[in-house]
Amino acid sequence: MKKTNLASKVATLTLTAIISVTGQQVAVANTDPAPDAPKTASPELIAKINQTGGADMGQGLERIIANGSPKSDSAITEAAQTPESSLPDLFRIQSEPMLTTQAATWRPPGIQGLDVSSHQGNVNWQGQWDMGAKFAYVKATESTSYKNPNFGQQYAGSYNVGMVRGAYHFAIPSVSSAQVQADYFINNGGGWSADGRTLPPLLDIEYNPYPELGNTCYNMSAAQMVTWVKDFSNRVKVRTGRVPAIYTTTDWWSRCTGNSAAFAENPLHIASYNTVGAGTLPASWKYYSIWQYSSQGPFAGDSNQWNGTAAGLTAFARNGTAPAPKPVVATATAPSSNPMAKTYTIPAKTGVRYTVNGTVKAAGTYAGSGTVSIKASALPGYTLSGAASWTFTFQNTPLIANGDMIAIDANGALWNYGTKAVAGRKLLAPSGWAPAKEVFVTDWNSDGVQDVIAQWNSGNMSFYKGNTNGSFASGKVIGTGWGSYTVSITKWKKADKYPSIVARDTTGTLWNYTNLYGTGIQPRVKIGTGWNGLDFNAIDWDKDGNVDLLAKNSSGSVLLYRTDGTGKFKSESRKVIGGGWGSYRMQSAVNYNGAGSQGILATGADGQLFYYGTGAGVWQSRISEGFGWTPMKISG
Q: At what angle do helices 98-105 and 6-20 cross, to 10 degrees?
């Protein structure tokens, strides 16, 4: 395929990868003016075609992806200046950088091939064969005035290394009759024989690359185009004994032939650059014979896949009956949702098309709102296995309420288990939380909406602001160097407006880090020493309105450290308020069992979770919350 410059390559690769995730042909809005009469090729245009090597298979689709226009030269420059807002939505999606490499190396399963023109020069056919290519199409002619100067080397070279090969003609339907172009093609390499090594002649009928010749459809009506293609096909059959295959895109066929269904006899060579599948086919065909899936490798020129077996390819070349390809089983990968970010993600899966609320969606991450219904269906040539529909609901109220317990599972997903009165759980984030050491639910900025504070193993402390619309802001790092600290979050002083952090360092010193107006952390204040070996949780044990610390020592006893409401511990002996807690992991649970409730959530060595409520200085009967909690990191 002819390449214009490096920027064009990058743009093409990036957006080709975007189209890859749908397996759909993308219809670009036709902004051409109403067609005039078909135009003939001027001597100047003929000279340009001969000098530049003309067009080649897929040139229009590649330019649409890169520039939003199928036309070449000056028309591409004009298209490149088109405001981004005027292009279809899909072309404005930002892709991941890795997709560029993927587009150049990925290949679908099955028998591989390529197509070339003079833009590839003398091809190293042995190298292509060694890479796995077993068939090839070679450009022979264009219109009635251009012959590929490299045709001999390319056509014979592919044959000599063992490939099945054939010739193609790039049609310019407005400049001559179909019969004239068919004869020109056949007389200059476009023949066929039933030797099992020659593919049927191929008609490349697609986007007009030359602005001198009018609009995308060469200023021809759908009826005129269908007649032209039918005449070409009939002439090739008369001359060679075989109807030609047709190379096109679903988009061009729809707009320029009115999606004609009159060509089922002709094999289909479909162009659809992606890593998913050939996509929706034009109305004439139930399945494709060859899929051109990439213009950027892995093979020279364009890369193709034969839709069938090696025996089927040989039968196809001989004009025998190649059995219709058996559908390939494709299992739809489940989409995922991230309620905290209010997004959902459509995966890229070969052979699978995803629709969201009835609209086809490319692979990627999208903003979620309300109810999102996602359905999977099989692309042509595939049959679907497994689940095919999913529903996500994005609420427009805060995701976490006061008193809710959140927890991280073994896979790093973050869940909201609600309060004692709530059954079940709701997903907050599908992944990414495994490296967290602790998570805390608190109204960090005192705006009435619960937030999340995460202490990461890396040492970062992050603040995730909860929003009233049911989303969370991206994490903001409010401190570093916290990896070795034991932490609890509470309103340390009775008069505090904002929660703050109580933390023990590796020396056993206890510190209070004051919240800086809900945005960060102020310099710390020492509040105790000798806390080595003590794990602690903050609740108001005696219901006097002041926070207390319940400290578990190495023997499993729980000691009570009461405060006076000013940030100081009361000068009194430390009362033992419990024993036998050595094997339990303890987290504070404020408002978990109703507004104003205080207690401890404790996970035993057997994975059973208990809620221990407290009264005014006494324990209440514990309540089991079930088993299986060993791998869970529960919010404190």
A: 80
The mean pLDDT value of the chain amounts to 86
Q: Quickly state the pLDDT bin for 54 (edges 50, 70, 90).
A: confident
At how many degrees (to 10) do helices 222-240 and 178-187 cross?
40
> Directed axis angle between helix 6-20 and helix 59-67, to 10°?
90
Are the CB atoms for 557 and 570 separated by under 8 Å?
Answer: no
Which of the following is catalytic: 62, 204, 438, 625? Answer: 204
Confidence label for 116 from pLDDT (cuts 50, 70 and 90): very high
Under 8 Å between Cβ of 632 and 438: no
Q: Residue 623 CA to chain centroid, in angstroms?
A: 44
Q: In which band, very low, low, confident or very high, does the pLDDT at 98 lie, cut at 50, 70 and 90?
A: very low
Q: Which pLDDT score, from 0 to 100, does residue 233 have?
A: 98
Looking only at the bridges linking them, the beta strands covering 343-346 and 352-356 are unpaired
Is the whole model's pTM more than 0.70, yes or no? no
Within a 13 Å sphere around the CA of 37, how many CA atoms are in the beta-carbon half?
1
Q: Under a CB-based contact definition with an 8 Å cutoff, are residues 3 and 53 in contact?
A: no
Residue with tokens 């794990």: 535
**In which residue are the tokens 């096109």 written?**
248
206, 302, 404, 535: which is the annotated catalytic residue? 206
Structure tokens that stand for 150 in this block:
């490299």
- The residues, ordered by sequence, that sit 6+ positions from 464 with a Cβ below 8 Å of its Cβ are 340, 451, 452, 453, 454, 472, 473, 474, 475, 476
Q: With contact defined as beta carbons under 8 Å apart, do 522 and 514 qualify? A: yes
Per-residue confidence band for 36, with pLDDT thresholds at 50, 70 and 90: low
What number of other Cβ atoms are within 10 A of residue 501's Cβ? 25
51 has which bridge partners? none
Q: Say which residue the tokens 């003309």 belong to.
A: 54
Lowest pLDDT segment from 38-52, 132-146, 580-594 = 38-52
CA neighbor of 588 nearest in space, from 631, 550, 544, 632: 550
The residue from 56, 62, 115, 302 that is catalytic is 115
Is 206 catalytic? The answer is: yes
Taking CA atoms, 197 is separated from 156, 170, 185, 333, in Å, by 11, 22, 19, 39
User: Is residue 401 packed enough to be buried (19+ CB in 10 Å), middle (13-18) or exposed (0-12)?
Assistant: middle
**Confidence (pLDDT) at 70:** 62
Q: What are phi and psi of 49, to 5 degrees?
A: -60, -45
Looking at residue 326, the DSSP 8-state letter turns out to be P
Q: Are strands 268-271 and 245-248 parallel, antiparallel or unpaired?
A: parallel
